[in-house]
Amino acid sequence: MAQLGEFLAAGAKDGLVPWAVELEASRSFGLGIREIEAAALAAGTRPARYSRNGTTIGLEGQRRLHAARVAVVGCGGLGGYLLEELARAGVGCLVAIDGDSFDETNLNRQLLATIETLGRPKAEVAAERIALINPAVQVIACRTRLDARNAAGLLAGCDAVADGLDSVPSRLELAAACEGLGLPLVHGSIAGWFGLASTQLPGGRGLKELYSDVGATKGIELALGNPAFTPAIAASLEVAEICKLLTGAGAALAGKLLSLDLRDMEFAKFEL
Q1: Would you state the pLDDT for residue 260?
Q2: Contact call for residues 167 and 64 (beta carbons, < 8 A)
Q3: Residues 6+ apart with CB under 8 A from 56
Q4: Which of 224, 185, 209, 188 is nearest to 76 (CA)?
Q5: Is residue 215 packed enough to be buried (19+ CB in 10 Å), middle (13-18) or exposed (0-12)?
Q6: Are 199 and 252 in contact (CB under 8 A)?
Q7: N or C: which end of the chain has fewer CB within 10 A?
Q8: Is the sign of the CA dihedral 180, 220, 233, 249 positive or negative?
Q9: Is residue 78 within 8 Å of residue 231, measured between CB atoms?
Q10: Residue 145 DSSP one-character state
C-alpha cells in the first residue's frame, strides 16, 4: 500500500488526485476505485472529485466519510436526494432499502424516477445511478421493506441511518429499531410547502415524542401533495446532519425539530 500511496502522491496536483490517475492506479495495482481512494486519503491527498468539499469537510472529514456506512431507508422523494448527495459527498458505503418500484406519480419529484425507470425497483435504480456518479461508493441494494424482524440485519455495521419514509407507523418502527441498535437516526418529512428535520440519538428524544399524538398512517401530504422542491431541501438538511455526525462538525439537531415553511420562507427550531 505504501507503493500505491507514493504512486498517487506523485500523480497528484496541488494535493488532488485526478480521475485519470485513479484509473491508472486501479489498472496497475489491480484494485477497485474504493480501495484506490482510501489509499489516496491515507497518503494525505484527496481525489479531485472532492476538491470543492474544501475545508468544509477537510481531509480528515473526507477520510471519515469514506470509511462510513449509512443506511437510507426509502429511496423515493427524500431517499433519491439523500443517496445522491451522500454519494457525491463521499460516504463510502450506502445501504439503499426500499421494496417499492417507480410509477408515474413519482415523476414530479423523485430524482431517480424517469420514464426509463418506471416499473423498476427503486433500490436497484439507486445502485445504478450512484455507480455512474461515484464508483468509489459501495451500494448495497435491498429490495425489501424494513421492519422489526429484519432491521438488525439490514442496518448491521451502519454508522447512521437516514429516514426517507412516507408513513408515520413505518417511521416509528424505524426509530424503535435504531434506538434498539444504538444508531443515530436523521429524520426528514415533507408536505406541500412544508417540511421537518430532526436527529434522534441513542437514548435521546426523537420520533416517538414527535409523532406521539399522530394517529393517521399518512400525514397532511395526502391533502397538500409534494412538489419537486420540498424533498430536495428537506433531504439536503438530512445530509448536512449526517455529515456532521460522521465528521464531528457542528451541533446536531439532537432532541430538536427544525420546521421549514417554503411558502413564506420561514425556518424555526423547537425542543422536542
Answers
A1: 97
A2: no
A3: none
A4: 188
A5: exposed
A6: yes
A7: N
A8: negative
A9: yes
A10: -
> How far from the centroid of its chain's Cα atoms is residue 152's Cα?
19
Q: How far apart are CA 227 and CA 136, in angstroms?
A: 32
Q: What is the pairing mode between strands 16-17 and 46-47?
A: parallel
Residues sharing a CB contact under 8 Å with residue 4, sequence separation 6 or more, in sequence order: 25, 29, 31, 36, 39
DSSP percent split of the chain into helix, strand, coil, nearest 5: 45, 20, 35
**Dmax (CA) of the chain:** 60
Is 80 exceeded by the pLDDT of residue 120? yes
Q: What is the dihedral of CA 9, 10, 13, 16, to 10 degrees?
A: -20
Q: Which of 138, 178, 173, 142 is nearest to 161 (CA)?
A: 178
Closest to 144 (Cα-Cα) out of 101, 110, 182, 173: 101
What's the CA gap between 4 and 25, in Å, rounded? 7
Q: CB within 8 A of 162, min separation 6: which ones?
A: 70, 71, 72, 73, 79, 82, 86, 185, 186, 188, 238, 239, 242
Indicate the helix (H) or strand (E) that contains 137.
Answer: none
Determine the distance from the C-alpha atom of residue 72 to the mean position of all C-alpha atoms in its chain, rounded to a whole number: 6
Beta-carbon contacts of residue 234 (< 8 Å; ≥ 6 apart): 78, 188, 189, 190, 195, 196, 197, 260
Predicted model pTM = 0.96
Residue type, 13: K
Q: Cell numbers at residue 81, please?
A: 436526494
